[in-house]
Amino acid sequence: MKRNSKRFLALMISVNMALTPAIAIYAEDTNNAASQTEEATPTPAPTATPAPTATPEPPATPEPPVTSEPTATPEPTATPTQEPTATPKPTATPTPEPTATPKPTATPKPSADSESGTTASITYDRVKFVKAADGTEFKMFAAAQSETEAVIKDGKIEITFVTANTSYDRIYLGKKDDAAKSSTVSGVKDGDNYKFVFTLPVSAKGTAMNAVPGNASKWYTSQDLLLVIPSTIKAAATPTPTATPTPEATATPAPEATATPAPTATPTPKPTATSTPTPVPEKTEALSDGVYSVAVSTGAEMFKVVNAELTSKGGKMYAVITLSSSGYDALYVGTAEQALNAADSALIYYDSVVTSADGKEQRTFTVPVATLDQPIAIASRSQRYYEAGDTSRMWYNRTLTFDSSSAKKIADVSEEEATPTPKPEGTATPTPEATPGPKPTTAPNPSKPGSTGSVNSSTGLADGVYKADSFSWSGGSGRLKGMSCDKITVKGGKASATITISSGSYSYVKADGRTFYPVAQTSKSTTFEIPVALNANTNFIGCTTAMSQAHEVAYQIYVGLEAAKTSGTASNTAKNEEEKKAVIAGTEDTITNAVAAKLGEVEVDEDAPEILGLTYQASLKINDAEYFKVHFYENDLAILEIDVATDLDREDLEETEEESAAPELPEEEAEIEEEKDLYGDESILYLLADEEAELPAGVEKEMQVIRVPVENVYVSSDAALMVLADLGVSEQIKAVSTDAETCPVEEIKEALEKEEILDAGSADAPGFKALVKSDCELAIVTADILPHIPEEDAEETVDSAAMVQNMKDLGGQLGLLNMPMIIDRSADEKEELGACEWYKVYGMLFGCEDEAVKFYKEAAETEKMN
């Protein structure tokens, strides 16, 4: 470990000692619960000889709630049903065993662990998620124990599972390797938690079944998890609605009118309720002919329907739905796996783009509706990952549930109106009416033809010609050197931009569902005029003949024009100044960034990065750390800034950089894009955004982009290893640059010995084969790769230029693996509390801000006491 590591380690030990009593008490309670549960568990009864005499009493307590309902009304019928199944002598004990053992959907933990010999490590004392390998609780989906419970209600187990964090919002009851995870339980956001309510058969008592947590981005499939159901379950507080079914049966309810005898009508719903933990559509019910507004639920935070109009005609239904964002460009009726292999003609492309009241772009889709009040499996395609060619993150499993009780008729449907068949948009016939440029003499035959969605080019600006305030672009193959926006033309409330591409090989572009030809072209450039969305991203496809054959290449541009904003440039500036003054005055409720609200006090930093398309709000008030800053922007975006110059030896660096200025490119390579050195400045910038956030085009050229929360990480910093272990996210560590003997964290050391974590070799030259195998999304490297100033009388010398170059080379190599590199300087902090404040950095990266702030505050309190 580095300088100050002893002081840092001492502080961590004192913090952990402060937490030890609570941990010890919890362990004692767990052991007591374990011993009590073993007595109540019906499984060991056959092996123990005196079990028939000692066991009947504990099962007798939970038995009545299970059998109370059948015995109330048809008492003579309920008793014979029980007695043939169970041998009369041990009436209480055998009853749970037959029901628990043959359950096909649940995987009992004893049978799962019998070979490895870890059966005794699991106690069915409460509802929880555990690792199948060793039975320990899965911390990333831990339960808030005060609110999580299991009760017997209406002849089945009703489970209320409340999470202690917000990492996952859905549960799949099945194996992680199952291709289609359709039987899911969706959680409801409850403050800083998710609440899941679902039912299981009574036979699930004392068992453990395969279960997989997930969210809108992906399912957790790193290891097998089990959902543990306690063996002793109390009855619901009011289990006596047995008197109610009798009058209901005689009151002739509508659904049961066909069943003549009341007693037979009552048990009918009970078996179906018990055997159906997840709803399955039974039949399609259509509304009467007409157009309806209807509520649609999805159970996914990143896939919300904000408006839906359902049309029903002749028993067939379809709906025009509006999603809350513009991140998805296509849907598919079915699973994500099916969508990935589906023909383009089977996809449902968006119909139009609308603008919400707050100026946010939203897309509409026309989807078929097969049933009401039941989930319809549908897959959504991320446009960003589609254009990047990332098939692993392109499609997401979703559901649509149309609530018939919310349907309100808003219009009649005409006789001649036909039900439209949702289909992908077609490429419109080229109509270069307003583009007087030359058409290509020979129509190229691109190897990968594509199409584009509509562009929301509407604006309130007066007709005329404007100059763009800002412009950026992204996409392509990396060979294009540059692109520029010469002017913006507004005509009839629609905006178009004149775009010049630094290549003379482009024959046409596709935008807004149409094809546009050049308005000007030379051997080195091609100019087009296309519709654009102002102050937002616009996608287009260009056809280039620069390669061996014609290719269509996808691009994205951002055209910024302050005058096009709703309140105008002057009023916007005034508004921003008012917000800054409010922050300085301490009225932090003006900050809408959710991450900022979790991390603590904020302040205005006049030197905060100004990034095209991002609206700055405030910066985190740093109390003790010196080497990092955090800046917050609208739409829950944050920029992490890490100082790589202060207290480092960079004396000859500027001279070296001047000497190694990039040479002028030869004529034949003029199209190759000039990349910015992301590690060359005195501070390295990282943009932290969630998986679905749409970012301004070209922002990845200015800084590293990290999608949070991070799931798989490579770590070469010992200080970072200890922090991640403290935060309970060490399971996200997939590769390290340390061996088991020198590893400072016990649980990571054990994982290395079991080869659950890969040893990637030295920190300055890791084994990239191991990093590829570990599927890491982020690299956290030690500050040892930076040129530190030698201490006085030190014999070693520092070649600062060489070390900085090595750091850049490492960052570039990791970048080729799509792995941003964070340099951890926590061990460089002069004060222990400065090192502790780095917990906030890792809280943001791994989605555990609350835990990070807690550790920092406890460290501060410990420091005061000392």
Specify the overall morphology. globular
Question: What fraction of the residues are assigned to beta strands by DSSP?
Answer: 25-35%
Helix percent band: 10-25%
Q: What is the C-level CATH assignment of the largest domain?
A: Alpha Beta
Question: How many domains, in number, for the residues?
Answer: 4
What value does the average pLDDT take? 73
Distance between the termini: 24 Å
CATH level 3 topology of the largest domain: Rossmann fold
Q: Give the spatial strand order of the biggest sheet.
A: 16-15-19-20-12-13-14-18-17
Write the CATH homologous superfamily of the largest domain. Answer: Nitrogenase molybdenum iron protein domain
Major sheet: 9 strands, antiparallel
Describe the fold and architecture.
The chain has 866 residues and is of the alpha+beta class. It folds into four domains: 1-269, no CATH class; 290-411, Sandwich (Immunoglobulin-like); 464-564, Immunoglobulin-like (Sandwich), CATH 2.60.40.1850; 577-655 and 667-865, Rossmann fold. Helix content is 24%, strand content 26%. The strands form eight sheets. It has a nine-stranded antiparallel sheet. The protein has a six-stranded mixed sheet with strand order 31-32-33-34-35-36. A five-stranded mixed sheet has the order 6-7-3-2-11, with helices on one face. Helix 4 crosses helix 5. Mean pLDDT is 73; it is low at 17-121, 239-284, 421-449, 567-574 and 652-673.
